[in-house]
Design a protein that fits this description.
Shape: elongated
Organism: Butyricicoccus intestinisimiae
Pathway: Amino-acid biosynthesis; L-threonine biosynthesis; L-threonine from L-aspartate: step 3/5; Amino-acid biosynthesis; L-methionine biosynthesis via de novo pathway; L-homoserine from L-aspartate: step 3/3
Bound molecules: NADPH dihydro-nicotinamide-adenine-dinucleotide phosphate, the ligand N[C@@H](CC=O)C(=O)O, sodium ion
EC number: 1.1.1.3
Oligomer: single chain
InterPro entries: ACT_dom, Asp/hSer_DH_NAD-bd, HDH, HDH_cat, HDH_CS
Helix content: 25-40%
Structural class: alpha/beta
Distance between the termini: 51 Å
Cofactor: a metal cation
Number of strands: 17
Amino acid sequence: MANKPIKIALLGLGTVGTGVYKLLSMRADDMPQIAGAPIEISHILVRNASKPRSGVETALLTDNWNDIISDPEVSIVVELMGGIEPAHTYIKEALQANKNVVTANKDLIAVHGGELLDLAEEHHCDLQFEASVAGAIPIIHPLKQSLAGNRITEIMGIVNGTTNYILTRMTEDGMEFSEALAKATELGYAEADPTADIEGYDAGRKVAIMASIAFHSRVTFDDVFTEGITNIQARDIRYAKEMGKAVKLLGVACNTDEGIEVRVHPMLIPSSHPLATVNNAFNAVFVHGDALDDAMFMGRGAGELPTASAVTGDIIDTARNILMHCTGRIGCTCYKKLPIKKMEDIKSKYYLRLEVENRMGVLAGVTGVLGNNGVSISQVLQKASDTDSAELVVITDTVRERHIRDALTILSNMSMVHKIASVIRVY
Ligand SMILES: NC(=O)C1=CN([C@@H]2O[C@H](COP(=O)(O)OP(=O)(O)OC[C@H]3O[C@@H](n4cnc5c(N)ncnc54)[C@H](OP(=O)(O)O)[C@@H]3O)[C@@H](O)[C@H]2O)C=CC1
Ligand SMILES: N[C@@H](CC=O)C(=O)O
Ligand code: NA
């Protein structure tokens, strides 16, 4: 056990930074035994260093990155600011100065992860990012280490706490979307700009990070198809419930013979499916590997202390590596270049809710267009209707996405179809 403290700098003291500050204080007495040395925060970078921060030593605060990068005593830079710049520049400069890096920044890792991991390898430094995917849930470390002997073919999960919280409130309490979003923001789950959460970008970034590690082939955020939850109506959730299904925003990554499939979108899943019972801000990730079979990881995907739990684990792991002189031990594992499958080529079942003219022959017209485009139908339900219009809910069999898109283009141009109100993929 070493007595000399390992000095770290926090970049950011918002939700996650505050959590890390608290957790390191809570565990301070145990650190020499757990990490092998005391962990000392020597600097905290914030935008506004004069803003009062309760319980935090003011002397640690700075708004000047040079205080940190020029301090040779700092051996771990913990980036918790978020966004691309200046986080990207600071992390590069830290690695170039042979400082190890821990980050929770999925925006950055999902785009520049490959470049940063290469830089870390060049400088024999650790670059750890467990909190960037599914908050507290250990998933990066298991994929890189415990499951490394597998050929992983599928990952599917709920990886955004904000949207899962919103969908849960809409399902259980009939809460409006905007009210549920405001509550998620108040609880510290949502990103600084919640567009990333509700449009599926945040989940898309997490899927890109997991797919890269699981399939040993670099997947970036641009490769991921994303569709958010802003079009989900209370009536879709109600109809899903009547059919014994729940609506969840799912991230899916599959390693298929036709290429890597990476997508985020709402999905109807059977209420009996384990993911259907994952509610509020909880996240869960299913992994299928050839040796492992199935495993599910579940826990809190966002929030102050849960996210701090993952960051602190990375800090401790890095501290141990520093003391054992083995930083940079686990670097980038992307040694393949697999193609990315086009979204039009994926296969799924679909839930379609159409507002149509209320007269004889319309049902035949709609099903005819679907059939002519190779879309076979599993179920048709007529829901609400008035004198002029009726609401049709169609559940298709499994078809290629391109066939559904072609059929919907034709339907949307037919006068008997007033509106294609919802299109949701079905598990
Ligand atoms: N919130 C969560 O539950 C989770 C968040 N994450 C990720 O963790 C990271 C941090 O998120 P979160 O804590 O919610 O973010 P916050 O917005 O709550 O906090 C950001 C902090 O970074 C500081 N900061 C931002 N930009 C700069 C800059 N240019 N220079 C100096 N300081 C800066 C801010 O300073 P100031 O206080 O002066 O404004 C603030 O202290 C993000 O990458 C996020 O995606 C990951 C998992 C879960
Ligand atoms: N905004 C994110 C926070 C964690 O990554 C979420 O809601 O999951
Ligand atoms: Na995690």
